[in-house]
């Protein structure tokens, strides 16, 4: 009697403590972030972010690469299988809410040679059905089922996070590849011009107007240009192979795809407007934040289920069976064995183990809250930093654009001077090289703006807001929401 009172008092105290501490496992994003981002700029629109942002680049090849990546990327396929695993684990939890049973048929042969000349021989056929059911009065198994369901939803969000990362990495690598192709074109022109300067220096040296040092310097400049061109071509291949991994294809396949006719150059992309609202509550759509929030709720259900292990459990068992000397008669005569029992079990000697497991579940719930808060802080830092990078990249791009415009005017003046004999060929060549270097610089700065724009879309978790995720036949699909 004293043991029962002790268990009852301990259970009530644990229950009161569990209820009192539930508030510490709750978080609200609206309270965790300010109403607006710190970084503001007139170039940033307050319009609703667009779905499938990569379509705004109006590049069919980019669209094809993203489509292949979302279908064949290995990380996305792994994330899909993680959903499958989570779903089946949840199905296992669901079975604990239902009765379990086993059925069997057996045959026994009896023979006794001690009776009569031939002895006694007969068969005995038996059928049995055993069932058991844990009556989930306190909702322990239901809590575990709910936790599993939430983790299934969490894996769906992690899948979405993978798709956002893959789409952004494909777009970033593709944009950098387009920039390199522009730079390679300009570097080839620079190499040709420096080769002409090298030839010009040789002719001048033969005429005695320059020294050997000038010839060697011209040769050094030419070789330096060739090295820059080789480095750019090397990086072009590396970026192509990175794209191959991202879209789940072999290097030869990606080269086949990239070699398709595509006249779009890096200067053809528009980078001066960000379709993102300034309100920081836009972070609520980030899949990692949603997933972390699901994990909090799942961990709280785990804690609740673990607490209910202290409470009594109620079980029903049933056994029905029948027997006959022949197989057909076993079902005609009905059941001649019927046993229905109910039982109550109370943990006594495992209190210490249960207490430790409950404390672990409490710690895991607190970890889930801390992980959520860390995810929110990281999201804020990423978005604020990316906004700063993008705004400044736009400013740098604009400055480089103005520099190229001035350089184009200088080149035009120099060409006119050369036409009237007021400038030498060597001076014009150097002006052309300077202009091409300004083009290369602008291409790089525009690339920085576009890459930061893509990273900003990823930071705010955009891209699929007009679509619903469906999971059917162990496969994720995107379905456009009905308006």
Report on the architecture of this protein.
Helix 3 (60-72) crosses helix 5, helix 6 packs across helix 7 (251-258) and helix 8 (287-307) packs antiparallel against helix 10. By secondary structure, this protein is an alpha+beta fold. The chain is built from eleven helices and six strands.
Biggest sheet: strand arrangement = 1-2-3-4
**CATH structural class:** Mainly Alpha
| Structural category | alpha+beta
β content, as a range? 5-15%
Please name the fourth-level CATH homologous superfamily.
Outer membrane efflux proteins (OEP)
- Compute the number of strand runs: 6
Q: Count up the helices.
A: 11
Enumerate the spans where pLDDT stays under 50 for 5 or more consecutive residues: none
Mean pLDDT rating: 83
CATH architecture: Up-down Bundle
Order of helices and strands: HHHHEEHHHHEHEHHEE
Helix amount? 55-70%
Most strands sheet: 4 strands, antiparallel
Q: If you consult CATH, what is the topology?
A: Outer membrane efflux proteins (OEP)
The termini sit apart by 65 Å
Name its key features:
483 residues, Outer membrane efflux proteins (OEP), elongated, alpha+beta, two-stranded antiparallel ribbon
How is the secondary structure organized here?
Elements: H1 2-20, H2 29-32, H3 60-72, H4 74-95, E1 100-112, E2 120-135, H5 140-207, H6 212-246, H7 251-258, H8 287-307, E3 313-324, H9 329-332, E4 337-345, H10 351-419, H11 425-459, E5 467-472, E6 475-480
Antiparallel strand pairs: 1-2, 2-3, 3-4, 5-6
Task: Give a concise summary.
The chain is α+β, with helices and mostly antiparallel strands and 483 residues long. It contains eleven helices and six strands. It has helices at residues 2-20, 29-32, 60-72, 74-95, 140-207, 212-246, 251-258, 287-307, 329-332, 351-419, 425-459; strands at residues 100-112, 120-135, 313-324, 337-345, 467-472, 475-480.
